Amino acid sequence: MPEPTCADRPQEQPARRPANRVLVLFGATGDLAARKLLPGLFRLFQLGLMPERFAIIGSGRHAPDDFTGLVAKALDVDPDDGGEEWERFAATLSFVVSSAEDGADLAEAIIRAEAEIDADGDRLVYLSVPPKAAPDMVAMLGRTGIAPGCALVVEKPFGHDLASAKAFNATLHEVLPEEAIYRIDHFLGKEPVQNLLALRFANGIFEPIWNRDHITSVQIDVPEALDIEGRAGFYEQTGAFRDMVVTHLLQILAVVALEPPSRIDPEALHRERTKVFESLVRLDAGRAVFGQYDGYRDSDGVADDSQVETFVALEARIDTWRWAGVPFYLRTGKALAEGRRTVTIAFRPAPLRVFGGAAPDGSTRPSELVLELSDDPRAAIHVQAKVPGPGLRLGPAAFTLDVGADFRQDGFEAYARLLHDVMTGDRLLFTRSEQIEALWAAAQPLLDAPPPLVSYPRGSWGPQEAQALVPAPGWRLPEADIAGLS
Ligand code: BG6
Fold this sequence. Notes:
There is one protein chain. By secondary structure, the protein is an alpha/beta fold. It has helices at residues 31-46, 67-75, 83-90, 104-116, 134-143, 162-175, 191-201, 232-257, 266-279, 403-407, 414-424, 433-448, 464-468, and strands at residues 21-26, 54-60, 93-97, 123-127, 150-155, 181-184, 215-223, 288-293, 311-316, 328-333, 342-347, 368-372, 378-386, 394-402, 453-456. The strands form 2 sheets. It has a 9-stranded mixed beta sheet with strand order 14-13-12-11-7-10-9-8-15. Strand 13 and strand 14 (394-402) form a beta hairpin. Helix 1 (31-46) packs across helix 11 (414-424) and helix 5 (134-143) runs parallel beside helix 6. It is globular and about 80 Å long. The relative contact order is 0.13. Bound molecules: 6-O-phosphono-beta-D-glucopyranose.
């Protein structure tokens, strides 16, 4: 009998060169542009994945003295002697002043540039501005005629609560159809997050056990060693819950929890992700810990009495047949002991202790599938195995998957991948308005009445209260604490 296949499944095509277009970067002198967007665009350029002809227009309230020099610094090249590739890239750069009140010069500059490069693709407009500034900027894009025919990329957090997210979505929809809006959550562009989809749905071994009958809990743990690093302006408005949890961590949760899609395409995945978010039980302040690292209030731009949380740990629940009763523990924070992005799926213990030994007292870790969502994606299934030698002594061991070593090929950095997707109109890895609203609805109780803020020392694993959230054997990280693991 022929193998069942999904009808009309599009075959994955090799990465292609997008059509000629103008790219407008609002926030081009900011932190995100320097760390991710400009390096991402340059990487695509080096790989021949930028359009044949393009122009990058940086824009903002104040023109920097030397925009090209600033870009060179972000790319770590010598602006005067950066090589032929850099010179060609630098020739595409310009900066035009604009603001929410006045975008006339920018609109003119875009039209001029489009004529010069024979643009035949949608202009890409990247709105990397603080959440409160975004709605007025979108209105300006509508008024000046920049928006029609553009692909608009917006950065999280989308709004700051349910009401503002709905209002922002309405503003966006006044100027553009949903299909032209790319809500970026760069965690979805990370190779290992996509690999999680591949592991789950390209193999037959995981799905039969991927449910409440076999899984006892899931941990999504994203500690960061870095602190707010001069981003007080953004962080004081946002905090860890909005910056990381309502966005990146819950997006990872959706990839772990979604039902098998009928195919891997934007519509099918979107439907399944939305169903997860709609089934999220409203978060409970009694099962959440908010922390602030010692010294945060001394940072430039932070209020002396700031109540902004730099750490969150919480328990989330999903009301579906697959996940009823399974806690999802989420944790993230700044200035912690280690920088990791680790997903741990814990499985039920064997029903009988045929090897004897002491009854599990909670200190022994169960079998766990551990996924490292790092630039060097790795996964391991941790099990009990026989220790070599006489007798039948058991110890911890692991089956491991090392994607980098297996494929001998580097992945794309998330932003480069997602910028390329926008230029080729691939919406697979972007979130949509209904998802954002469902997420804010689940998050609203914690926004209305957050748990008390507890302080924690820099370089620690956060407040003690967060340890108590997860029953024994507790958080998988730090792994140094796990007996038998070196
Ligand atoms: C960003 C947050 O979206 O993600 C930052 O605003 C955070 O606060 C960053 O540090 C983490 O992303 P990555 O890719 O560096 O792990």
